[in-house]
Every structure is written in C-alpha cells, then in structure tokens.
Model the fold of this input.
Amino acid sequence: MTFVVVEAKYKQKFEHVFQLYSGGLIFINQEGIILEVNSKIESILQTERDELCGMNAFHLLDILKANLENKKEFIEELHQKGHAELFCDIQTFSGELKYIGIRVSKQKDADLYLTEVHDESEKMSMKKRLDHTESLSTLGQLAASIAHEIRNPMTSLKGFTQLLFTTANDEGKRYLSVINDEINRMEEILTEFLEVSKPTTHIFTKFEIKNLIQEVVNFMAPQALMQNINATINFEVDHTRKILGDRNLLKQVFINSIKNAIEAMSHGGNIYINISDMRDKPYVCISIEDQGYGIEEKVLERIFDPFFTTKAYGTGLGLSHINKVIGEHGGNIEVSSTVGKGTTFKFYLPLHNGNKPILTI
Ligand code: ADP
Ligand code: MG
Done:
C-alpha cells in the first residue's frame, strides 16, 4: 500500500526531471526496492522497466555482476553524508560489459533514494587507449636508445673478429666467419629498427611511381607465387607525371604493404594493385587490395601503433614505418577492410609540380 502512495507522490513531482535527464535514474525506497526507472536506465542496462521495478537494488547489482570492492564504505558514506558515489564494471542484461558510475543521494522530503547511473565505458576505453599510446611511445624511445647502445659494442666485436681472422687457422676462420655473418644480421635488424624510431636523412628525387611499383611487384612475385598468390597491377596514370620522394623509403613502404597482404592470405588469392590519378587533386593514389582475412574494427584502430602485431612472429613495425614515410612525403593513407573478405590500403602521394605535366628529361 505504502508502495503505491509513495509512487504516486514522487512520480508527479519528478516526472519532468525523468523526461529531461540525460543519465539513467532509479528511485529506490527505504527498503532498497526499486520503484521507478527512466528510459535511459533501460538502454544502459539493456532491459525493460518492468524487469527492474520491484527488485531489490543490491539484487540488481548481483545480477549485473557488479564488482563492488568498497560496498561497506559506500553504504557507510551514504548513511553519514546522505550521498555516495562509486564506479564499477558490470555485465548488462544482454551480456555486454560496461563501466558505470553510480551516485546515490537521499531525498529527505520523499524518503527515497535517487540513484543516477552514467555509462562511462566510452570515457574509460579512451583513457585506456591514451595510457596505451603513452606507454607505447615511452617503450619505443627506450627500445630505440637500447638499440643504439648495442651498436657500439657490436662494432668492436666486428673489429676484433676481423683481427682474429688474420691469424686464425682454417677451422678458426670458419667459426669466425659465422660470427661475422651473425653480427651483420644483428646490425641489419638494428638498422631496420632504428629507421622506424629515428629521423633519417632522405634523398629526394623525381621519379615515376609506376616504375617503382613494377619493381616492387617483380621483387615480391616469387614469394607471392610460393603461396599461390597472384599480384596484378593496373595503371590508370599519365606516365609523364612524377612524384618527388625518397625512392628507397617508398620502395620499403610498398614491399611492407605487399608483404602484409601476402601474410594475410594463407589460402592464396589475388592482390590487385591500382595506380590512378585523382582527377581534381594533384595526387597519385596507389591502392593495394588483398583477399586476406581482413582486419577487425578493434584491431584497425591500432595497426599503425609501433610494436602492435597480431602475428606470432610479427614485429609490429611495418605499418608504423609506412605511416612515418608516407607522412614525410606529404601523403595520406586510407584503410578499409571486411573481415573474411580482404583489406585495401590506399596511399595518396602528392604529384610533383601539382597537376602540370613535367617533361621527362
Ligand atoms: P607485422 O606485420 O609485423 O604484424 P605491421 O605493422 O606490418 O606489423 O602490421 C600490424 C598489424 O596490422 C598486423 O599484425 C595485422 O594484424 C594488421 N595488418 C596489416 N596489414 C594487413 C592486411 N593486409 N590484412 C590483414 N591484417 C593486416
Ligand atoms: Mg608487416
């Protein structure tokens, strides 16, 4: 009986707040029973009003699997101050994981507790992403300085190996040449790594992008064929137009990109490379389309992060290097992907001298 009376009393009083309020609202009586919720609560908790009304509030938190570490302190604070706040992870009625903020305040004149609920999931995931990026860049800087430090002792190792070589017998020479090869390999790895993390000096020249792409495809074709992959190039460009860039760096960009495409196509298939002019802008667009496993949306956000990889033996440095080089050339990258179907990377590079044709010398 009291239930109905209280309900009528508060409903009249707070109806307009219910309609206007952007957060979730729950009215709870002295016994902890939920009397009313607004529609925002239905969308946050992914359930219907009827499921919630009449339920004990703590029972609701149990259903939501709320991890209340400070439940005791929370209740104490609520009694003492008349209001209290907490944040917790929950699982909604339809199973989605969310992070919510709950603020309960006692409504003296109505003998009710008003509970505000805010979905903080988006904010939380943004914070996590920021923390992640920060730790990545710190990690990257640390790794780069370690790589740099390793180079010096390696140079002396190399020097002494060569010195020993002059006096060693045949067996010794064999071992020393193995050591020498391994040092060279380590140096190559370090150079590749430092290229990603340090600014490099560029040699910019004017050249036709289609020749460069053709060279890259010829270079990658044997590796692709071994995995039953065919790479085809389609040119839609005016061959007299050139770009200004570092040929070697751009070559690495397209080698890395085609390598990623090959690695995504374990069952073979086609890689379509298209080079086209953009009619209204002085840019050339190189698109590399594969028929690989595609990239999930959550992964897509991170593929350009240094060290991010989904592969057992990946370095996660390919795309961050690509991003850096294309950026240094004043270009842009667009990625579109469908899981299970394939991925397309589009690289936009500015043409030299805008859209005025340049005479080939
Ligand atoms: P790595 O190849 O060493 O993993 P990259 O920086 O080249 O590092 O790529 C990062 C991640 O981006 C890969 O691990 C993969 O998950 C994803 N990726 C890149 N290119 C493709 C592609 N063509 N198809 C599917 N996933 C890709
Ligand atoms: Mg790669």
In short: Residues 182 and 188 are 10 Å apart (CA to CA). The chain has three domains: 3-119, 125-197, 202-360.
